[in-house]
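$ run holo --ligand "coenzyme A" --emit tokens
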Amino acid sequence: MSESPAPLIRRGGRGDVPFLRDMVRHAFYWRWGTPEGEHVPASRYVEGWGRRGDGSVVALESGLRVGAAWFRLFPEAAPGYGFVDESTPELAIGVVPSRRGRGYGQALLEGLLEHARVEGHTAMSLSVERANPALHLYERFGFRPVGEAGDTLTMHADLGSTPEPRLRGEGQDGM
Ligand SMILES: CC(C)(COP(=O)(O)OP(=O)(O)OC[C@H]1O[C@@H](n2cnc3c(N)ncnc32)[C@H](O)[C@@H]1OP(=O)(O)O)[C@@H](O)C(=O)NCCC(=O)NCCS
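-- output --
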């Protein structure tokens, strides 16, 4: 039996924005069972893509997108769920349901954290529910809880302590 090939990860570009929109719906669906959150609209994670502080990576299988991870700087007046401060980008990630559990999430995180380092970011934050299996993935990459609200954790990672990347291929986020 042959081993499956290592996931192919490339930088995202403007052409990937509709796919990011789909992936953010998956992340919100996990949390709320609905595409919209109670306090933060899902669109906030994607709208006006390409502004300063935006970065993304996309996972491909047979040339088709199967997942994406991205970071974004939010203003304090319109924060994301995992907001820490205006200079710490917040992470979002999603893999299409039929391709989960095959290593794409891990490969996307590796690629995204390297992308963030190259852009000069020294930390990243995120928001996750305690019951989401993605929590273990985040812990492996050095994310630690820095806040909680009900069942939701805000996590923070120092990018200096994350594993070495395996990023292949580059697109352009227009930054
Ligand atoms: C979280 C997510 C991006 C992980 O992607 P993935 O490609 O399944 O991840 P990997 O295969 O690299 O596995 C990493 C971890 O994801 C979890 N995972 C694996 N298979 C999974 C599945 N079918 N469904 C959900 N999570 C799964 C496991 O905890 C795994 O950790 P482990 O190696 O300790 O078992 C993906 O499950 C997803 O899109 N979930 C819905 C959206 C979401 O919750 N986003 C995060 C919001 S904070």
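-- notes --
The chain has one domain: 8-161.
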